[in-house]
Design a protein that fits this description.
Two copies of one chain form a homodimer. The first copy, chain A, is mainly α. The first copy, chain A, has a single domain (3-121), classed as Multidrug-efflux Transporter Regulator, Chain: A, Domain 2 (Orthogonal Bundle). Chain A is 75% helix and 0% strand. Chain A contains five helices and no strands. In chain A, helix 4 packs antiparallel against helix 5. Chain A is elongated and about 75 Å long. At the A-B interface, helix 3 and helix 5 of A face helix 3 and helix 5 of B. Chain B binds a DNA duplex through residues 2-4, 13-16, 18-19, 23, 32-37, 54, 59-61. Chains A, B: GO terms for molecular function: DNA binding. Chains A, B: Residues 1-69 form the HTH merR-type domain. Chains A, B: This is DNA-binding transcriptional MerR regulator. Chains A, B: It comes from Pectinatus haikarae.
Chain lengths: 122, 122
DNA sequence: TTACTACATGGTGTTCACTCAAAGTCAATA
DNA sequence: TATTGACTTTGAGTGAACACCATGTAGTAA
């Protein structure tokens, strides 16, 4: 697959895909003899995984570290697991915060609804 | 209350509090004759509200708009409600995305656990 | 009066995560 | 053959949201 196809498929710009590869967020993508990127299953898998993690706000830096460990092979399994657990903790916390705000927004909206109803019945 | 007390109370820097006021994220705070900020109940309420909304990632821009509408009085109630509903929609979506990632992380971690167990029993 | 502290303003710097521009290569098409 | 269009790299630029700094002043303690 070309970069434009991957860009299309996952809804990311080509610039972002090149950037991800450049900084090590995605292991280096295979090339055609001309030097043009030719994404295979493996690379696509990484793209999809990183997109998912980034969409949840995991920092680029941390994901780079994860990819780096992954490339070092099975001896880094414990470190990778640790990294994932730490990130999940942060994520859990952020979700909890967001749910609190969600509830607060809901109640504020309900309040506006009530005001409207009061206005109508007056 | 002084800015340092408010900063302490809500866990935000004085710089952030001044920044929020400057860009209109918080209605202007009353001052002592000397020009020093003297936060009252009302201002503290805004600080707390904005901190909550920001912690969930609502954009500064949108919150500025909300404050602007609020200051225009009751004729903007409908607009404010609309704004809150839109932001809640975005938040709901964002939370759903993050929960998907949360589940994915959990499963990945479980996978590492399984590998360990396999290694132990071998 | 001097010293000290907390505050003020205005302007610049930083970080994160891209995003774009410039200049060049390569393959296919008119 | 010439041109078009997609791709390449390197490096600089952008925007959001603060963080930091220099300089100045009000209020208080010794």
């Amino acid at each position: 697959m070309t970069i434009s196809e991957v860009s299309e498929k996952y809804g990311m710009t080509q610039d972002t895909l090149r950037y991800y590869e450049r900084v090590g967020l995605i292991p280096s993508v295979p090339r055609k003899p001309s030097g043009v990127r030719d994404y295979d299953e493996h690379s696509c898998g990484w793209v999809e995984f990183i997109r998912c993690m980034r969409s949840a706000g995991l920092p680029v830096e941390t994901l780079i570290e994860y990819v780096r460990l992954w490339q070092e092979g099975s001896k880094t399994k414990a470190a990778r697991k640790h990294l994932l657990i730490e990130e999940k903790k942060r994520l859990d916390k952020r979700i909890a915060e967001m749910q609190a705000t969600q509830a607060r927004l809901a109640s504020k909206i309900a309040h506006y609804d009530n005001m409207n109803r009061v206005a109508e019945t007056l």
